[in-house]
Amino acid sequence: MLKALSSHYEVHLATFIDDPSDEQYKDELSNWCASFKTIKQNKSWSKIKGLLGFLTNQAITIPYYSDHNLSAWVKQKVQDENIQRCLVFSGAMAQYVEPLNDMLAKTIVDFVDVDSDKWAQYARNKTGIKSWFYNREARLLAKYECYIAEKSFASCFVSDDEALMFRSMLPNSTRSKVFGIRNGVDTEYFDEETAVNNALIINKKSIAFTGAMDYWANVNAVVWFVENVWLQIIEHHPDAVFYVVGSKPSAEILKLDGLNNVVVTGRVEDVRPYIAKTALSVAPLQIARGIQNKVLEALSMSKPIVLTSMAAEGVKSESQEGYWIEDSPDNMATRISQTLNGDFALCFPNNRQYVQEHFSWETEMSKFRDLIEQGVQQ
Question: What is the pTM of this model?
């Protein structure tokens, strides 16, 4: 997104760094930004700040992502540079721009997903105090999302389905300002032919799940898969291995490492060899919104993938080759076992072609530029 925008505009970026390992990439921002401000996010302190939402009747998401230094920098930069147009990435960051609306000619919010609905999904999977807590967050965050959408020039979501859902939450007067702009994938980078790591030895009868492993939906998906699907698979394929590939694995995920042929890698420098060398990828998400990068990346590398209907939202491969939607644990186990048996080919070039045709960064980013330029006098 920064690359696309910087080729047309002078970009000033305000952002959090929530993973210390991302510090190494900070200097590269100068390639795409005229100026930038980064704030190291202390998640423990952010959780404490989030609890202030109970005192102010806010969704905890808002104070969780609040920061006085970042707010001051944004305000000063808008004033000093006479900035007229702002693109906000994720609803929680809109709080930095909303007080400056009188200074700005246009604000576009890329919500990506309807985050409030994810909290509602969490609530449906919990009972007692947790269900109450998640329902509260869903209700208050939805109210905030609608408020921001009303105040903004445009609101964007990662798929047409996601945009349609959000429109249903809004009054008629605001619905025309909601757009679906798909996520993209770097198909040059996620190419099976270039993802070579000869030092990485992986059993051919193995599968991979990729994603941040401190994210509750990913944790939930892996635990559900191991408990309901994986044990069935290793009954028929005792040498099969399940690789859980992603940074910051939670305690719940770490407990799985080494049990029942499960390997938890933690952060890796490059996920591509794990996708390339395993027989297939899985995305057994029970809670999801929008488009899953893990799905696009596997498809881009011509790999077969088994996923739930939740994970398939916004992708829906037309070819359906090497792309199987299974919500039943038994059906999912059968499909994966068949693939490990060699009943299907393990390379599906149509998957890659589908991604190249439908999830091009160049095409999707041009839609953001169209919104930025709409109604602007040249």
Answer: 0.81
